[in-house]
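Hello everyone,

My group is preparing for a crystallization screen and wants a predicted model to guide construct design. The compound we'll soak is nicotinamide-adenine-dinucleotide. Before spending weeks at the bench, it would help to have a computed complex in hand. I've included the protein sequence and the ligand's SMILES below. Output in structure-token form would be ideal because that's what our pipeline reads.
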Amino acid sequence: MKISVIGTGYVGLVTGVCFAELGNEVICVDVDKEMVDKINSSITTIYEDGLEEMLKKHMTRGNLRATTDLREAVEKTDVSFISVGTPSGLMDYIDLKYVEKVTRDIGKILKDKEGYHLMVVKSTVVPGTTEHSVLPILERYSGKKAGKGFGVAMNPEFLREGKAIEDFMNPDRIVIGGIDEKSTDILLELYKDFKCQIMKTNPKTAEMIKYATNSFLATKISFINDIGNICKQLDIDAYEVAKGMGMDSRISPKFLNPGIGFGGSCFPKDVKAIVGKAKEVYYKPAILNAALELNELQPLKLIELLERNIGFLKGVDITILGLAFKPGTDDMREAPSIKIITSLLMKGARVHATDPKALNEARKIFGEHERLKLYDDPMEAVKKSKYIMIVTEWDEFKREELYKGKVVIDGRRVDEAKVAEYYEGVCW
Ligand SMILES: NC(=O)c1ccc[n+]([C@@H]2O[C@H](COP(=O)([O-])OP(=O)(O)OC[C@H]3O[C@@H](n4cnc5c(N)ncnc54)[C@H](O)[C@@H]3O)[C@@H](O)[C@H]2O)c1
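Reply:
Good plan to model first. Here are the tokens for the complex, ready for your pipeline.
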């Protein structure tokens, strides 16, 4: 098929490259010219294992390219996937301005385009967006009727950063929320080689499945952190408790690691967005609000524990192992490291931070700060201080020699750190 993917961030670039791998002809579109130029030079703008190799392969083959020219991309393809950002807006309501802008622009292009075109929303959008916002905008700007001149579908993305290609190629399920049979059938054809379950539903339900999934996983993390905080007070190892719980097949061990909470571009904003959507229908989701509230302060438990051990942190050198919100990515959006470092700097500490992939992101976030130094080599970073906080569980930090003779406060259960002179975990 001929496919255009609009918005080439984490989801869009992975989607474009993977659809090319599946034998389609793909045009990626972004407003960011620098990003487009890099993609056309086979350079990925994000870190994701295996992505650059696949990008190179399809650039060389000629079945993938990037452009800033939306009109050309839509005119030359049959299906467009929207994968622009859907950040938090005012009072945590979802901000749909990027989705609406692309939709208006595509609507204008469809006005002049001959033949049928399918528009697929892959961005995470609150229930009702595809049918009550995207569809009417397309109709208004194209002057055509949905279902006749063009089709519309919602196809949520469930990939995890750090495992994005693996997840895209081998998903647990694919959810297709088409407005009609024709829209659904085109996506079924596109996904025909996938071995997983494919669920057909309406767009609103597809949208809600994505939010319900992320809200459940975020709540599971906050739940085990809640249990972990109680365990800490009772001198019980929360990891042992989680292990025992996870053996129950109704519960499963996944997303059951007590620690310093969830971050990233999805869980925090998506839970907030569905809480915001619930407000519109006069409902206050008690469990989701509690999951968010617990997550707010959980990263700062590392600081609380260190203060309990050594008192004031003013003038103290502290090493932070890990900046990305999880291993395998350079993404620092809503990363616990941001809260921890900001708080340490506010308290007057000197921070020495290291991460295998996220140093450039950290430079963008923190800029120049005289009490914050960033290091490529974790060994260099740990040499600068007696006190270490483990924030991201990269394999690079699973080395005993980093911790010998140190005071370690661990937010991620890195067993190798237990050789430290003093070791304490956030929930154990
Ligand atoms: N990151 C994830 O792990 C993940 C997983 C599943 C779903 N999602 C959802 O997918 C969507 C995209 O997320 P992301 O992390 O890839 O975002 P991102 O911020 O990394 O990328 C969005 C891209 O869209 C581009 N863009 C904005 N307006 C545009 C326009 N008018 N035309 C063309 N390009 C435009 C931006 O320049 C940017 O490159 C969001 O709704 C997100 O919630 C993300």
